[in-house]
Design brief:
globular; Rossmann fold
Length: 174
């Protein structure tokens, strides 16, 4: 179920970074304990670029590797907890399902438990799980168009709506 859809026009990599940063900060400010973001698009569409910028905005430092071969990369993030005036340590997962050829691989992988945990899960190639993923809070699809990326952001929850509303005006198209 989609709460809302927003068309995007990303002129370059800095626009992709700005989008990811705005969405990450909106999630932190919302205070939701769990987040699922799906990333769709062909090879080279900008999915990993988005994921890296999102993770950087959550405070991940050091090398952020593509999970194409490892399937999942795990990071630790510290989220401000306004209620207790401290920080919560949470995991952030960057998952790549590109190598899945059968939906049963999703079931056998054990990733369902990871995605249901506290923290953020960014999943590239969600279509390779063929409808077995939980409802995404936010789905981003990217299509290269020359040097630009045309995108669509779909909010699938209240958290997703909060994040969608944080998108900078200059990135919105249509």
């Amino acid at each position: 179920m989609a709460f809302a859809t927003l068309p995007l026009l990303l002129a370059d990599e800095s626009d992709t970074d700005a989008l990811a940063q705005a969405l990450a900060l909106a999630w932190i400010q919302h205070g939701a304990p769990r987040l699922l973001v799906t990333l769709e698009g062909e090879l080279g569409a900008g999915k990993t670029t988005f994921a890296r910028a999102f993770l950087r905005a959550l405070g991940v430092q050091g090398r952020i590797k593509s999970p194409s071969f490892s399937l999942v990369e795990t990071y630790r993030i510290a989220i401000p907890d306004l209620q207790f005036k401290g920080t919560l340590q949470m995991p952030a997962y960057h998952i790549d399902l590109y190598r899945f050829s059968d939906p049963q691989e999703w079931e056998d992988s054990g990733l369902r438990e990871i995605v249901g945990e506290r923290g953020a899960s960014l999943i590239e190639w969600p279509q390779h799980a063929q409808g077995l993923l939980p409802q995404a809070d936010l789905s981003l699809s990217l299509v290269p168009s020359g040097t630009q990326r045309v995108g669509q952001l779909v909010a699938g929850s209240e958290v997703g709506m909060t994040m969608l509303n944080a998108v900078p005006e200059r990135l919105k198209s249509g």
